[in-house]
Amino acid sequence: MTDHASTVDVVLVGGGIMSATLASMISVLEPTWTIEILERRDALAEESSNAWNNAGTGHAALCELNYTPERPDGSIDIAKAVTINEQFELSRELWHFLLTSGRLPEGFAFLSPTPHLTFVRGAENVDYLRRRADALRAHHLFAGLEFTDDPEVIRTWAPLLVEGRVGDEPIAATRAPEGTDVDFGALTRGLVDGVVARGATVRLEHEVRRLRQRRDGSWRLTVADRRWNASPRKRTIDARFVFIGAGGGALHLLQKSGIPEARGYGGFPISGQFLRTTNPDLVAQHQAKVYGKADVGSPPMSVPHLDTRVVDGQTALLFGPYAGWSMKFLKAGSPLDLIRSIRPGNLVPMLAVGLKNVDLVKYLISEVTATETRRLRTLRAFMPTAHPRDWELITAGQRVQVIKKHPTQGGVLEFGTELVTAQDGTIAGLLGASPGASTAVSTMVDLLERCFPTKVDGWRPQLREMMPSLGGSDWDDSFEREGMADDAQVGA
Ligand SMILES: Cc1cc2nc3c(=O)[nH]c(=O)nc-3n(C[C@H](O)[C@H](O)[C@H](O)COP(=O)(O)OP(=O)(O)OC[C@H]3O[C@@H](n4cnc5c(N)ncnc54)[C@H](O)[C@@H]3O)c2cc1C
């Protein structure tokens, strides 16, 4: 039996950081709008936004080498780094606004100041890091970046990187003291609590199965109630605006919506694992997020890093990620997810990507078959004294990298995020994974501009109050903001 609920203004599919962010913004901009969040799991933030399913790095380009590619002439391109840094600043501004305006509980803890370091080995990498630091420091956003190639200085920054290191291989590091570790799971729950306090509804164990646009432009969603005692088991909800913030589940739902803008997109799932230690002796010796350099030929999301994590008030160290292969699009998804996503419209891009990315496939096979010894070897390149007894292997969130049509190459694989919006602005969905949570606010500002063009003018003063750095003249003149899809080479 199907039950029908009344029309709501905004339905957000998925209870992760993206829906939580958008719901928070809309509930400030339009306090009278009805908002409903539908989540298939029995709790919020159980997929990628869960603290242990991602690395919790507040991506501000303070340590990630993939934001600063080297040009053929040897100079360093810092444009992407500047964009990411500005986007993370927007996130911080919104969080600050929500905290200071009482929309997040006073003293709510989800962000821990944690210096961001980059660590490299070998003369060539040391030279690159020095040039990169010089290029970044010339920009006021990175003026405080420190560089050293002195092991004794690195020892004072992060002793575990140096202790037990033998040989005379050159090493170098940069340090940005203003880095952060973010518990995106706690943040998601806090943001949703805030919007619920202001009248929004959350329905857990509610899975959106179908979406159909009605003649008046609104959307009818068919939703399965997965609770064991549900009655009725199905309901329909009508919504004037739908955001598909379903993470790995977004591709299927966008495809089901039938909007032409979703045609041609495919997904390439990559799973991941981290090593984690809670050994207090080790935890006490490392208070930083240290990003290294990805191996040649490996994808950007495989950049190894050794991180301080603060989750639920407890501190731990995390190392990884080790990539893996799974056909699922969500951690709690189905092995048929990949097969089910194949459509006539995305077959060519998917085949093209499969044929062209042999190196990636090889890399994934080598990661899947990696033994404990090999995983330890990777960790020891960072932390020479690492002992297996201290570390446990945990499964991270599932990423679905975006495959999209390309006019000459058939299809390309993207490592960024892609906001897909219908031309009439009644529905939008977010594909892809990186840099993800850190830049959720910037992505949602982009969404507001694209889906609510007639409203955004009126919202501008409020948006500026929420995020003062949006107030620049560029933003006044044009709402054209840089697309996240351009940030293809970003690691998380
Ligand atoms: C290994 C890894 C490391 C990462 N590290 C970082 C990092 O250090 N810093 C950073 O900023 N970002 C990082 N990211 C990216 C970041 O975690 C994601 O971009 C972000 O969490 C995505 O949020 P979301 O709300 O879109 O998706 P999710 O958090 O996955 O939420 C989507 C929700 O939708 C629900 N859902 C799916 N289908 C349906 C349906 N049909 N009906 C109802 N509900 C549905 C799911 O159950 C889920 O709860 C990392 C990601 C991974 C996988």
UniProtKB/TrEMBL annotation:
Gene, per the UniProt record: mqo
EC numbers for this chain: 1.1.5.4
Entry keywords, A to Z: FAD, Flavoprotein, Oxidoreductase, Tricarboxylic acid cycle
Matches recorded under PANTHER family: L-2-HYDROXYGLUTARATE DEHYDROGENASE, MITOCHONDRIAL
SUPFAM superfamilies linked: FAD/NAD(P)-binding domain
Biological process (GO), any one: tricarboxylic acid cycle
The protein's name: Probable malate:quinone oxidoreductase
Family: Belongs to the MQO family.
Entry GO MF terms: (S)-2-hydroxyglutarate dehydrogenase activity; L-malate dehydrogenase (quinone) activity
